[in-house]
Design brief:
13 helices, elongated, Rossmann fold, five-stranded parallel sheet, about 375 residues, binds glyoxylic acid, seven-stranded parallel sheet
């Protein structure tokens, strides 16, 4: 049997020249304009798809999977994947992938930019100047907080957190504290110049706190009114992870009432909607979820996602081995075999458990041309 070309859905316009690479192996249905897909539209788009290239805008859970019987792979263009129900994907043995590493430094840059803009009141100063309020130079105009030599806190010490630590320690001579589910090896701590602290110690000690931890239901509103009350009133809070980590109303209240000096936010709980309570404040810098948005990095993310998707569908240069999977199932099943009568055939299922392994199994749902096949161990 000649394996059918997988059908893939691309949920948003990305970079056409990169997405087009999928067409060498797959039939591609790419959405041409930026679209807010309803859950029903996502389910409809996945109905006949073997794979999908999606962004954080599209949520995929049990309902969407139930409508997508052929789906085998989801490539998320982004490092965070809280838009995916990983348990549901694992239950269906759908491979999901993300795009770590390629965006680390760009996102750490943005975290630092927000920290500096908030602490040194950059956007507030600019608005004030443009409003024509600068009548005379004065010694006390826009006094902010120092970055060099201050104490930087990082909540979530993955790759991006470590990038921020390196910038703070090596670039600005900051005293860097971090809190994380698990402590880093001492050699890594030394390399990035950071010291482990308990959560409460972190909150109490730092002059600037950057949130870089992956969002999950367990850390919803980890920065709430109680956490904010433990921070210095002169401190800056930066969130480049996910909006749901912060109780935004408590944050707006703290910023409005002098219990926190400033904030820099790139992510929001209801994005793209931003709470009016935040929009009304002068001491918060707001950017529209642009952490990884440099041209080079966004291209690298799409390239990695395309590689992941093709590989997870068993085609392309890394067939069977997506470079950056996040689900329990990390290899794809490439099927070769001969279709038998009716809808069942016996064939060879390769690459189930890793390099060099071959297994035989039952292949279901092999039909004629244009159909893909799924196999079971
Ligand atoms: C963006 O937020 C990402 O997770 O890559």
């Amino acid at each position: 049997m000649t394996a059918a070309r997988p059908r893939v859905w691309v949920s948003q316009p990305l970079f056409d020249d990169i997405v087009d690479q999928l067409a060498a192996h797959c039939d591609v249905d790419a959405v041409a304009t930026v679209t807010e897909h309803t859950p029903a539209a996502v389910a409809a788009a996945l109905r006949e798809a073997d794979g999908a290239l999606i962004t954080l805008n599209e949520r995929i859970g049990a309902t969407e999977l139930a409508a997508a019987p052929q789906l085998r792979a989801i490539a998320n263009v982004g490092v965070g994947y809280n838009n995916l129900d990983i348990a549901a994907l694992d239950a269906r043995e759908v491979i999901a992938t993300n795009t770590p590493d390629v965006l680390t430094e760009t996102t750490a840059d943005l975290g630092f930019a927000l920290l500096m803009a908030a602490a040194r009141r950059i956007t507030e100063s600019e608005r004030w100047l443009r409003d024509g309020q600068w009548q005379q130079w004065s010694f006390s105009t826009m006094l902010g907080a120092d970055i060099h030599g201050s104490t930087l806190g990082i909540l979530g010490m993955g790759r991006i957190g470590q990038g921020i630590a390196r910038r703070g320690h090596h670039g600005f001579g900051m005293n860097v504290l971090y809190h994380n589910r698990s402590r880093l090896p001492e050699a890594v701590e030394r390399q990035v110049g950071a010291r482990y602290a308990g959560f409460d110690e972190l909150l109490a000690q730092v002059d600037h706190l950057v949130l870089v931890l992956p969002y999950s239901a367990a850390n919803h509103h980890i920065i709430d009114a109680a956490a904010l009350a433990k921070m210095k009133p002169t401190a800056t809070l930066v969130n480049i992870a996910r909006g749901g980590l912060v109780d935004e109303l408590a944050l707006a209240d703290a910023l409005a009432n002098g219990r926190l000096a400033a904030a820099g936010l790139d992510v929001y709980e209801g994005e793209p909607a931003v709470r009016p309570e935040l929009l009304a404040l002068r001491n918060v810098v707001l950017t529209p979820h642009i952490g990884s948005a440099s041209l080079a990095t966004r291209r690298a993310m799409v390239l990695l996602a395309v590689d992941n998707l093709a590989a997870a569908l068993g085609v392309g240069p890394h067939a069977g081995h997506p470079p950056t999977p996040v689900t329990a199932r990390k290899t794809s099943i490439a099927i070769t075999g001969t279709a038998g009568a009716g809808k069942t055939a016996t064939g060879t299922i390769t690459d189930i458990t890793g390099a060099g392994k071959t297994a035989t199994g039952v292949i279901t749902d092999i039909a004629g041309a244009g159909k893909s096949a799924t196999g079971k161990r």
